[in-house]
Amino acid sequence: MKLKMLLNLLMAATLAFAVGAVIAYCGRAQSASAASLFPADNGPASIDVSKYPEAQQKNYRLFLKKCSMCHTTARAVNAPYVLPKEWNDCVARMVRMPGAGINASMAKRIASFLAYDSSVRKADLLKKKESSAASASKASR
Ligand code: HEC
Question: How far apart are CA 69 and CA 83, in angstroms?
Fold first, then answer.
């Protein structure tokens, strides 16, 4: 009787360990593939907005809430987008994702925040892209 109980206990412990190992393995595989597909995921997931205008701080909180549902906010925080059009297009694409739950006015506020933030944190890249966009339109004239 005692031996049977001991065996049952041993089996339960083995099972628990196996399930734990499988969960740990799957979790690692999933995050590794997401991180290599989206290197931006590895960067910081938040932004210091303490010096941003009040309205943009509010938009930032909306961004944190809405853009963290399916992936880390790091994916957007470290994205190579800086131009308002790039952000509008990106946000519009996310809005169309099934179950995104982002309406038009939320999308506008989030895109506004991301463009403003780019003008602060990614000013150099923004300047570069603006000037290459300007010379491209001159060339096409
Ligand atoms: C309903 C789920 C969902 C929500 C909500 C969501 N995303 Fe995404 N996002 C995805 C998926 C899935 C991918 C990867 C597949 C793809 O890019 O098509 C992705 C990829 C991205 C990428 C990398 C690809 C690219 O377009 O450069 C960025 C940046 C991004 N999301 C930003 C955002 C922002 C900003 C928000 C908030 C407005 C947001 N996401 C909200 C599902 C979502």
Answer: 24
What is the CATH code of the structural domain delimited by 41-139? 1.10.760.10
CA of 62 to the centre of ligand 1 (A): 15
Contact at 8 Å (CB) between 45 and 73?
Answer: yes
Q: Cα(127) to centroid of ligand 1, in Å? A: 25
Per-residue pLDDT of the chain (141 residues; tens, 9 = 90+): 577 888 887 887 777 766 666 556 545 555 556 678 999 999 999 999 999 999 999 999 999 999 999 999 999 999 999 999 999 999 999 999 999 999 999 999 999 999 999 999 999 999 999 999 888 888 887
Beta carbons of 45 and 72 less than 8 angstroms apart: yes
pTM of the predicted structure, to 2 decimals: 0.80
In ligand 1, which atom is closest to the CA atom of 67?
37
- Atom nearest to 98 CA in ligand 1: 1
